């Protein structure tokens, strides 16, 4: 074996060793089904989350889902469950997951009915703030804003409270709006929005 050939051989061996030993396990590609199954551990196999403070993601707007995954990946949002889950995801993985879940039917989370006085209170708060200007007429969201209608009550309350206190700062407009609301009124908003259904739309039973 010549000196040049020997050198090339050694470089090849070192390269193989690097990719075998140094490359992390996360570099192994997972199928979309495998990735989605990991999400189901918290968000529910049938679209109904295992905890009321966890959001429904079935049928949620694609761009919003992708933005949230990217925010967790970049550390703009921190959550003890979500942050480790997205650490190994590529942008392609996140785009595939956002597309997958956005195409699923929004589940019926069986939110409790809201008394008329709570409805009136919520509307008196939401209408002057023109929340439908961003979240649309029926709170169905748009290309970048999430659907709020029919979302988990406790999740909505927690999210609005986090914006109110400044614990969540990913949308400065929301921080300003929620700070203008008394924290004691946020529960009424969550109950009202959670009980809304989109006209002509039947949520899937779980």
UniProtKB/TrEMBL annotation:
This is Cytochrome c553. SUPFAM superfamilies: Cytochrome c (SSF46626). It comes from Hyphomicrobium facile. Binds 2 heme c groups covalently per subunit. PANTHER family: CBB3-TYPE CYTOCHROME C OXIDASE SUBUNIT FIXP, CYTOCHROME C4. GO terms for molecular function: electron transfer activity; heme binding; iron ion binding. Signal peptide: none annotated. Heme c 2 binds at residues 131, 134-135, 174. It is found in: Periplasm. GO terms for cellular component: periplasmic space. The keyword Zinc-finger does not apply. Keywords: Electron transport, Heme, Iron, Metal-binding, Periplasm, Transport. The lineage of its organism: Bacteria, Pseudomonadati, Pseudomonadota, Alphaproteobacteria, Hyphomicrobiales. Residues 26-105, 117-197 form the Cytochrome c domain. Heme c 1 binds at residues 39, 42-43, 82.
């Amino acid at each position: 074996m010549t000196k040049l050939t020997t050198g090339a051989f050694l470089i090849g061996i070192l390269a193989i060793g690097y990719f075998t030993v140094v490359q992390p396990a996360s570099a192994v590609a997972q199928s979309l089904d495998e990735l989605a199954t990991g999400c189901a551990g918290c968000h529910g196999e049938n679209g109904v989350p295992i905890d009321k403070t966890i959001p429904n993601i079935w049928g949620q707007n694609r761009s919003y889902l992708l933005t949230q995954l990217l925010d967790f990946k970049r550390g703009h949002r921190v959550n003890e469950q979500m942050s480790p889950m997205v650490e190994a995801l590529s942008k392609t993985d996140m785009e595939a997951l956002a597309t997958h879940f956005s195409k699923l039917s929004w589940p019926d989370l069986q939110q409790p009915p809201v008394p008329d006085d709570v409805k009136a209170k919520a509307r008196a708060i939401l209408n002057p703030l023109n929340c439908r200007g961003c979240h649309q007429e029926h709170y169905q969201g748009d290309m970048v804003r999430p659907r709020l209608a029919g979302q988990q009550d406790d999740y909505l309350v927690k999210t609005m409270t986090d914006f109110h206190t400044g614990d969540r700062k990913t949308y400065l407009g929301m921080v300003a709006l929620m700070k203008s609301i008394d924290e004691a009124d946020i529960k009424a908003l969550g109950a009202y929005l959670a009980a809304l259904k989109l006209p002509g739309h039947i949520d899937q039973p779980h």
